[in-house]
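Re: Re: ligand-bound prediction request (bumping)

Still looking for help on this. To restate: I need the protein modeled with 2-acetamido-2-deoxy-beta-D-glucopyranose bound, output as structure tokens. Inputs repeated here so nobody has to scroll up.
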Amino acid sequence: MAAYSSSLSSIFICFLFGSFLISEAVVPANETFRYVNQGDLRFGNDYLDFVSEYAPTYRPLPPFTFPFQLCFYNTTPNAYTLGLRMGTIRSQSVMRWVWEANRGKPVRENATFSLGSDGNLILAEADGRIVWQTNTANKGVVGFAILPDGNVVLRDSRGNFVWQSFDYPTDTLLIGQSLRVRGGPYKLVSRASVTNNVDGDYSFVIEPKRLVLYYKNNMPYWSSTFPELNRKNVTIVNATLVIQESEYEENNYNSLRCNILNGQSWEFPYIDMGQVQYNSSLSYLRLGIDGNLRLYTYRSNVQGGATWKLLYTMFDKSQDDNGMIFEDECHLPNRCGKFGLCKDSQCVGCPTPNGVVEWSEDCNTKSPGCKASGFKYYELKGVDHFTVKYTGGTGPVKRSDCESKCTKDCKCMGYFYHTDRSRCWIAYELKTLSRVGNSTHYAYIKTPIS
Ligand SMILES: *[C@@H]1O[C@H](CO)[C@@H](O)[C@H](O)[C@H]1NC(C)=O
Ligand SMILES: *[C@@H]1O[C@H](CO)[C@@H](O)[C@H](O)[C@H]1NC(C)=O
Ligand SMILES: *[C@@H]1O[C@H](CO)[C@@H](O)[C@H](O)[C@H]1NC(C)=O
Ligand SMILES: *[C@@H]1O[C@H](CO)[C@@H](O)[C@H](O)[C@H]1NC(C)=O
Ligand SMILES: *[C@@H]1O[C@H](CO)[C@@H](O)[C@H](O)[C@H]1NC(C)=O
Ligand SMILES: *[C@@H]1O[C@H](CO)[C@@H](O)[C@H](O)[C@H]1NC(C)=O
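Reply:
Sorry for the wait, this slipped through. Here it is.
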């Protein structure tokens, strides 16, 4: 701009730039909208309204494609999430939130949700401050739609998606939605609690060699093992929730799977999530508040209502061995709270330096402090940490070396040691310890010398 000394040429350039913007503003007037978060709040206490997941109050917005509707909802007064609800008023069961725009960044009363003529979809506070947006201004958007599969899209004139909600999951995947190693989205993140809609402690992540469930981003509590892929040294490209229509003994059924695709091999591993006899195109996979993975299917019935069915739970008490991947609930980090012994999905004890006592919510370790002279270790036999099954630990090392590593590390709360393979795991959080029928597995828990 410094090259143009005359103010006239600057004005001329501004004029050109301005007309360029106008020619790019292509959303037809009847496709733009602006909805304000105000008016009556619904809850579920009269015959017209039904309860939504997390029991919020909510305001439905006009965009609706059966059975999906955008709403402002809040579980805390004056802190609204713009969410996509699945289910209908006529469903005789709780409606579920399967996508949301602004987790962790709630908006207040009178916030606006708008599609401007420039094609940018914006969630803003009443004072105009933008809280969330699709960043699609002047990118050729001509319209907005909620598709029948629950994908919220901004389309260009050729019908391509300039932006789609399927690329921005929070804790839920719908049928046809993918996680991708390159370009993302590469993970689901759990919700902190029913009332607090911020990121929780758990994530479901796609990596080049595996799918992993992490506690706090770095402690795996489950990971897929795809031996055929590892043998051929191929890399995962994406994981997609799909329905596979199949026939078995002349019965048609739909099997729900998380298909793992790669660009190099014809072997496509998948996570089997069960079978249904009905059209299950309305289903979702959820990383729950508790870190568990569950698949739900939605079935419309002839009366115009619908019901939800829980089809698959990865960490489950009852484990039918029919090819599906199941884990004991004891492998959920928080199954027994801050500290507890777990066996067959039950919390069975609270370990203390003086022996195991009855488990309760209060079961915890005492802070060992930092100075090595201020703490000692007590031993537990036949237990594993939740990370042990899916991480290698270090080794072979001597137990004394494993111990001194923990002793020197202030943040280490204890260590786990397998005497048969001389392997060592350092634990920064103890959480749920699984009872294992293996006398070579030991835990050493730090405790203050009182
Ligand atoms: C807007 O108008 C066009 C042309 O009349 C029509 O095809 C389209 O369905 C309208 N969109 C909405 C949201 O009403
Ligand atoms: C929302 O806006 C309306 C006017 O449109 C106003 O009467 C009301 O007080 C506002 N609510 C809040 C909480 O600011
Ligand atoms: C596996 O593949 C990667 C690249 O995709 C390559 O760098 C590595 O050498 C391969 N390993 C084996 C054992 O073939
Ligand atoms: C997933 O990966 C496969 C294999 O590379 C590819 O054909 C497919 O288009 C990908 N799907 C998505 C949704 O990214
Ligand atoms: C299942 O339902 C969807 C719409 O909900 C429809 O598009 C699809 O064709 C149906 N599939 C079968 C096999 O009936
Ligand atoms: C204990 O675990 C090791 C592997 O860590 C295994 O080789 C051994 O057979 C197990 N022993 C029992 C009694 O389960």
